[in-house]
Amino acid sequence: MKHFLPHFIQENYRHGKLEGRLRAFTMFVDLSGFTRLTEKLMQKGPEGAEELSYALNHIFQPTVALVYEQGGFIPNFAGDSFIAIFPYKEDSATHAEISGIALRVAETAQSTLRRFISDQEDPVMAEYNIGIKIGISEGDVKWGIVGSKRKGYYFMGEAIEGCSDAQVRAESLQAVADERFLKFIRPEIIDSESIGDGLSQLLLEGINLSESAPHTNSAPKLPKPDPVVMEEFFPKEVFENPGIGEFRNVVSVFLSFTGVNTHEALDHFSTVVLDQSENFGGYFKEIDFGDKGGVIFCIFGAPVSFENNLDRALEFITAVQDDLLHMENITGARYRIGITSGTAFTGVIGSGERCQYAAVGARVNLGARLMMQAKWGEVMADENVQRNRNFKFSFKGEGNFKGFEKSIPTYVLSGRNLGGRTSFSGNYFGRQSELKTLLDFAMPLRENRFAGVAFVFGEAGIGKSRLSYEFRRSMRETMAVSWFTCQSDQILRKPFNPFIYFLKYYFEQSPENSQERNRELFENNFLELQYELTENRHPEADAVRREIARTQSVLAAMVGIHYTNSLWDQLDARGRYQNALSAMANLFVAESLLQPVVIELEDAHWYDDMSREFLLQFIRRAQGYPLFFLVTSRYEDDGSRSFIFRLNLLKELQIPNTEVDLNFLSPEDLKSFAEARMGGKLHSDLLELIQRMTQGNPFYVEQMADYFREANLLKTTDGVVQLQQAEDIQMSDSVKQIMMARIDRLSGLVKETVKAAAVIGREFELPVLSAVMARQEEFARKNGDLELVLREQIQTAEKWQIWHAMNELRYIFRHSLLREAAYDMQLRTRLRELHHLIAEAIEHLYPGSEERFVDLAFHYEQSEDTQKTNKFLEKAARYSQRNYLNRQALKYYEKIIDNLLKNAKKSKKIVKLLLRKGAVHELVGQWDEAEQDYRSALDSAKKLNDWYLIGRSNRRLGQLLMLRGNYTEAKKHLDVAVTCFELANDQVGIAKTYGNLGTFFFRQGSYDAAKSWFAKAIEINRSVQRDAENAAIVANLGLIFMNQGHYDEGIRWLEEQLDIAERAGDKQGLTTLYTNLGIIYLEKGALDSALLCLEKGLALSEELGNKLFMTICIGSIGSV
Fold it and tell me: What 3-state DSSP class applies to 857?
């Protein structure tokens, strides 16, 4: 355990000594320019706050170690500064011994400055552009332990004031001492230069104090930290889990005071502040007598957050003002306060010898600046604080503060706002009006007709999911209806993820099951559907059943089940995409033949592009069946509504649609809802509190009710529910604060489990979480079985309504905001570590799973493991390309190319990736982008002087230019490609280019030249045992012979290739060959043979879902 409490204070408190005096040398270390740096880094968000904490610890940790090595100790860390105290016994030590201690203090200062100067050579530290100043003094130090329920401590006196004053006069990289210190230093050892007012700069450069200063054999051994004593001074959350910092929205309260001159007065003054800080849930960080005089610093929101941190801080200030009024009138004690609110890094500053739980951020620094600018008796606030509706503020003006580049608006607290109650409108308890709208709109389902599309809009937590649930319950009470939920994943947004979510639920798939069990469940559900369709009397039932049977392997592949030698195996990327669309649409249609279907598109604002494209296609077909689309969505950031089905499209297709906008609950409805949730009639004070905090958001009400119960804040008297201490509760209107408060209510181990699960996603799998938590220090130290311990944490979190089980081994956060709060509070370094552990766990648990490539790329990217990120980005890109997920493929290719370009100017890998990316662009008709990729690849290949890659780049570019009709340039590139492949001795590349040249001449009607090139390509492919590659070439060659009237020659070529394709099982090639053979027979007039071939071609194209060849075959059969 670390020393959160100075050992000096701990040992005196254990021995019952609460005040005293000592003689000591003191050293004030201050970082100049730190506030400016803080403001700059905080603009970068959490990453900047983390850099800030790194800078502080990097500078302070070695200095702290030096202080303790030399026999000193540190009372507090005041953000960017600290004071070190080096005691000595003036009554027993000789002057030489005391001088030796003074030299050790000077040596500590010298080592600190030298280390800081060397740090500036580190590019990371150099860019921070901060300085360091040191002040040194000697004299009396008074100390004391204050407080009743919660303890605090202080160090003050002439030595503290002396080093503070000396530091103020120091420039960057200077150590300045006063006369009291210098009298112990011999000039021949350390020279000094007077700067006036009894202060001198120590000239420490070029001297070796380590030879002059006497040293003890070893650093003083510190007593072990005593947790029992520490809990008297700090909340246990400060020291129970000190290793992990967090990001929190904190309220910083700085209280400057004067006129409190005795220990008794300071004890009374501090006890008031300590007790009120404890009452309102604040963290009393310290009493500090530094360069700002007497200062007390309190934090609200860390280490424990409440749902109303700002209200609590303002109530704390009001209570302190009331309590200190009497003392101020009697003793003349005065105070002034600065209060700010904003995001800060919260965690441990210092080292093992001495550390402190602190908050670091620009708004924290601003709080101290506001305190110093406030008049005595005044409370100055920033704009974040003045937004609070329960208190009144007056504008003081724009202020310019040291370390802040821009002027900042400031306000003065003027009292409570007794008229700040929020008003509500509308009658929405149970959402009866909105529910009736949906039920009325769904009436066509009762007549077995298409109903249309209902859009439900509302902010997070407003009750969209609850309305959907009530609608589903009401529908099922009065009719048989199937309800299919397609829930989106807002983090990864993988292609078709809402529908894959539905399919896995439909077929009862689970990643925790064995592959055999998943296959068994899939087949059982599939057979049940087949049987129901067989028994169904709908005229389309048989056709739909046959299509369901045809696409079985497609549906299986979408949920991760693979059938060898299946339709899915035979399909190319385009075929897989088209068949996936067809299979999903057909499944919904099949279910609608059995009974009406509601398709719930949950959180449509997070739907991926491929899912949107499917819906736009399916909506056209859906009109003929008893289907209802229920679309729930949040508003955009600007308050606008985004429709997943364009309204003009719905109008064009004459599809009925309606919109429901969920608003806040009215006070009457909120009262009914809250009383139902909390189990009784509510006291008027409690109801007023809930109305003010929730502003009518039902999810906020739920969270508040849960929190009140968990914290045992409620009591029931004569059937009326009320708060135990109503006067101490001022709830916030921020749901994030509520989430943070609920998470903070968990024990340390459960809390860390929740935070780790949040990094996996809203849904998480127990095996992955188990693998991650096995690497956590707390779990490793825990006795017993890891799985048992983890299940205890899982069950505890489930008990406290953080998540619920989807099945035995899969869980889901009850609300995405809970997951987001747990995720966002963690440090970037911690998130990087967790993302890496998650990726490693997925790799280990699901080796070779193609579906996981996207997840692995995402987690490795977040962990900043570039090598692994690139590895799985490429795998994900190729997987997406094979499955015709073109937008995703382009996205991943773009990412990996950008990553590689950052690290290597010349790379064969980049050329190959550019060619693959260009091929995707070409496939989807983005020819400009494809040409740009091919030309970039060609330029890079030339720089590498790689004939093979130059050949590939020229071939792809030539082929594209040919498609675009630029025959002259296309021919040049294809000719160059042939030469390059010959130099590289690449027969495959030569064959492909010959095939391109054949197509080139075929398109221009030069049939003899085309035949010559095709023949060469065929010969090479046969020589390298790539006969199956000849299918498309031979099919085109046959058409050339047909166009020249040589029907039999064309037939001969195609029939020979048919044998090869049959042996290879190349269904794509067979489709092309049978179709073209049928066309040749048709042109020849052999109609029976033509019909036979075309029917085979049609059957194959239907099996593959190849709509182009289906169209060609049907048209040709019509001609027959």
Answer: helix
Rounded (5°) CA angle 1044-1046-1047: 115
Structural contact between residues 1001 and 1013, judged by C-beta atoms closer than 8 angstroms: yes
Over the stretch 809-825, which tens digit does the pLDDT of each residue have? 889 887 666 888 888 88
Name the token pair of 927.
Answer: 């020819």
CB-count burial class (<10 Å; 0-12, 13-18, 19+) for 812: middle
Q: What is the mean pLDDT of residues 621-632?
A: 96
Give the pLDDT score at 148: 92
- Return the CATH number of the domain spanning residue range 740-826: 1.10.10
Give the C-alpha separation, 212 to 190, whole Å: 10
Are 660 and 456 in contact by the 8 Å Cβ rule? The answer is yes
Asked if 948 and 981 touch (Cβ cutoff 8 Å), the reply is yes
- Contact assessment for residue 154 and residue 144, using Cβ atoms and an 8 Å cutoff: yes
For the chain, the domains span 7-216+247-399, 423-481+599-663, 667-733, 740-826
What average pLDDT does range 540-553 have in this prediction?
95
The whole-angstrom separation of Cα 694 and Cα 427 is 16
Q: What confidence tier does 418 reach under pLDDT thresholds 50, 70, 90?
A: low
Length of the chain: 1120
Q: At what angle do helices 1031-1043 and 987-1003 cross, to 10 degrees?
A: 30
By percentage, how much of the chain surpasses pLDDT 90?
52
- pLDDT tens digit string along 939-962? 999 999 999 999 999 999 999 999
Q: How many CA atoms lie within 13 A of 208 on its CB side?
A: 2
List, as one string, the DSSP characters of 642-666.
--SS-HHHHHHTT--EEEEE--PPP
Cα 585 from Cα 466, distance rounded (Å): 27
Backbone φ and ψ of 113, nearest 5°: -65, -40
Give me 935's structure tokens.
């030309």
The C-alpha torsion from 690 through 692 and 697 to 699, rounded to 10°, is -40
CATH of 7-216+247-399, one of 3.40.50.300, 3.90.25.10, 3.40.50.920, 3.30.70.1230: 3.30.70.1230
Tell me how many degrees the CA angle 149-151-152 measures, rounded to the nearest 5: 150
Helix (H) or strand (E) holding 28: strand 19-32
Q: List 257's β-bridge partners, or say none.
A: 294, 335
Fold of 423-481+599-663: Rossmann fold (3.40.50)
Instruction: State the chain's maximal CA–CA distance in angstroms.
Output: 125
Q: Is the pLDDT of residue 1027 over 60?
A: yes
Does position 1008 have pLDDT exceeding 50, yes or no? Answer: yes
Is residue 430 pLDDT above 70, yes or no?
A: no
How many whole angstroms separate alpha carbon 492 and alpha carbon 501?
Answer: 13
What average pLDDT is seen over the chain?
A: 87
What is the rounded distance in angstroms from the CA atom of residue 564 to the CA atom of residue 188?
A: 90
| pLDDT in the model for residue 733 | 38
What confidence score (pLDDT) does residue 424 get? 30
Kindly report the pTM of this predicted structure.
Answer: 0.67
Contact call for residues 574 and 881 (beta carbons, < 8 A): no
Given a contact cutoff of 8 angstroms between Cβ atoms, the answer to whether 729 and 689 are in contact is yes
Q: Which amino acid is at 429?
A: F
| 650 Cβ neighbours under 8 A, 6+ residues apart | 453, 619, 657
